[in-house]
Every structure is written in C-alpha cells, then in structure tokens.
C-alpha cells in the first residue's frame, strides 16, 4: 500500500469522527497503530507525517474526498437521504475550513481582518454603512471604492447601495445629485417619478431594472404583504466624484426637508402664506424616510402597468426585466442573462450593462474575463466562492518562486498577508490568486482583463447581479469550455506558446464540452 493510499484509507476510516472533534484523524491513526504492535513507533511517525500532509491539502481537495466517501458509504438508492446529509456535513466542514484557511497567515487565525484590507476587491457587510434606517427598512451604502485602494480608481465615481423595505411601506420622495440604476433583487413594489407637471409610475418586480435620472424626485412603495423589497442600486454622482447626497423636499424634522434651510421670510414670500402655516407644515414628519402605509394607500399607489412607459420621453419602457430575454448561456449548471443599451434604451448614455448569473448548486462558471468593462458584482442569493488572477497584487519574483517550491496545494496562494504591490520595472508578471467566500450581500470588483471564476456551494444556487461599467463594445471572453479563446490559436501558436505538441494543448482545451457553466470542483465524481 503506498503511503498516499494509506493516508487516504485512514482518512476515510476516520471521516465520521473527523467531523465531530479536534484532530480525530491523528488520534484515529495512532489508535490503529496499536493493532500492529511491532512497528508502532514507525507507524506513529507516519501518522504524524500524514497529519502534517493533511494540513497541507487544500480544503477543496478534502471536500472532494469527503464527498466521494459519502457516495461510497451510501451507495444504495434508498440511502439518498443519508448521502445528502453526509455531503452537507462535508460542505459545512469545508466552509468552516475555508474561513479559517483564509484567515490563516503569519499572525495566525486572527489575521482575517488584516487580510481583508489587503484584498481590495471584496466587500462584506462591514464595509457598508447605514445611510438611513427606520424600523421599517434601511438604506445601506458601500464605502467609496477608492477608500479601499487606488487600484479601484477606474470606478471611483460609482457607488453601491442596497435598500431594504418591509412589506407595505412607503419610501418618501427624494432626489439625489446622482444617476441611479436600480436592480430589483427581491419583492414587488411600485415606483413614482415626478417633475413639475407630471408624475409617472410603474410597478416593479424581481429582476426589473430601472433608472432614476439625476435630480428626479422619486418615491416607492413595497406593495407586497409579506415579502421585503430589496433594491440594489448603482449610483453615479454628478457633483463631487464618488460622493452623493439625498435631498428630501416633502418631509419635516425627519427626514429633514430642504425647505427648512430657507429663512422664514423667503418661505412666506415663496409660498405666499403666513409663517405659522409654513412652520407647521415642515414641523410634523418625524418618522423617517421609510414608513408604514395602510393597505388602501398601498393599493392606490400601485395601480400601474407592469413595466410602464418611460416617463419623460415616451418611446421606451420604464423598466426592463432581465429574465425576459432568453439567457445567453443556459445549461444544467446555470443561466447567464445580460441587458445592455441595445435592449434597454435607458442605459444608452450610461455606458453600463447589467448581467445576472444563476449558478446551480455545486456548479461553477467558466474562467472568463471582460475585455474593457469593470464589473461590480453583488451576490443577491446563495453562497460559494470566487477566484481571480491578479497581477497587481503579485509578489516579488524571488518570494513567489520560493513559495511555489514550498507549496503543495494551490490554495496557499491565498495567504493574502503576503500581497504586495508589484515594484515598477519588474519584468516577469506573476499572478496572485484573489479568492474569497461569497454570500448574500458580498460585493466583488472584477477589473477588466482579469480572469475570474465563481463557484456555487453544494447547497444552494448562487445568484449574482453585475453592473458592468465601461460596457459599450465590451466583450466577455471565456477561457474554458466548448467555445474558448485558446481553441482559436493556430496549431503552431499553441505549440510555441505552451511548449508542448499542439495535440496535447487541444486535449486539455477541448475536453470540457459544456459552455460557460460547468460541474463545480466539489461535485466532480472523477476529480
Ligand atoms: C435558477 O436556477 C434554478 C435551477 O437551478 C431555476 O429553478 C430558476 O428558475 C433559475 N432562475 C433564473 C432566474 O434563471
């Protein structure tokens, strides 16, 4: 029995215990040594060695083995339930490990925080602050991209915000000094936009995209009785790059009305009424910007056509549902939808496209990159992780060589502690793996040209909405699967570039027969 095979056998034997307690594999392994008294010492040494090796194996390798073991142990048809339970435990263990794995570094497990600051592409809950909040909902705003890193200067003038409103609520009228593009991530609502002599409203539902032009006063209702309304907003300020403000006219103390900034004599003269009545009007509202409404009020404010007609200009629709068009990619492993300015005129002057990926549980996207668009991706549902190749965060050459020699699993690349900016004049580009968990609410920036892949957990679909900034004439290039860039190289180019016979290159790049969505690494039976 080879050493590796023994390791694996011992691991499998102890997998059940492994889930329950600390380092049980090691204990189990040593325990089994006593059955073979003669060479106890030697055996124990091998256990120790194996244990060290096990620590070097990547979480994903362990996940695969664990999943395979579940299949082996619960092969029968009627054991499907147990098999699923078993695989769920594998997944949980994997997730726990990847969390601590990411946090592992020179300073031990506590370096998680530090790591995050060194990976400027991923934003979690704590990178949002609360723009406004009442008991009926809140607006969360993501920190400015450039606060995080200069590498994100290209999207400096974009902000992300997420609005959540409880069922049967009213979001009071306001305008922003910014263009707003909204994706309805969840729920059903109605939006109204007003100008001097006109008001246009339309109902909105999951998957809808709509735009609120800068300065347009808009208000919303959540017209559902049970479900929250969740809107993901891309905000493009028009005054100060990267900064915007909300302006409430109709209001009082809270939200404070901008009318209150004017002096009494100005307001009296402007409205042509006496000062007391002005004071009373702007002194009443104290409930905040998201408030409860009665069902009659909601019903009366929701009497719009689905989609509606675009208010100010007439010829195009007010909303576009991203699921309406056939997906660009669609197979058992996922669907990919995209809307650009050719399908939705509202996007025309914004240079933005919106895409939506629905990655099936246990599946992954192809590695791909965008030719010129910077992608701001927001997870709207599910869990998983991503990997991205990043030349900006690579290590210096000598460091990366020594690390490459020492490493056994590619995951060690994610010791993000060691990120450093590549010194100028460095001739050999080396790439850092940027990797992080994805869960509902995570925001990831994928710069143009950077190869990226997303993987869904085994339990749930992973759904991601992406705003692509700088989208006009952007192309998305896939790097594996039925159609991929490498397949287009001439035979000679393949041989020269890879330094192996073209046939060998083709064998690798032609083996994956699916397009864009594949079976994920944790699910591959023959991995
Ligand atoms: C997402 O995928 C699931 C199946 O995995 C499917 O039932 C659902 O309709 C899909 N949603 C969209 C919006 O494509």
TrEMBL record:
InterPro entries given in the database record: Cupin_1 (IPR006045), RmlC-like_jellyroll (IPR014710), RmlC_Cupin_sf (IPR011051), Seed_Storage-Functional (IPR050253)
Location of the Cupin type-1 domain: 126-279, 320-506
| UniProt signal peptide | 1-20
Query: Which regions are flagged for Basic and acidic residues bias?
Result: 97-113
Concerning SMART domains, the annotation shows: Cupin_1
Compositionally biased spans, kind Low complexity: 394-404
Protein name per Swiss-Prot or TrEMBL: Cupin type-1 domain-containing protein
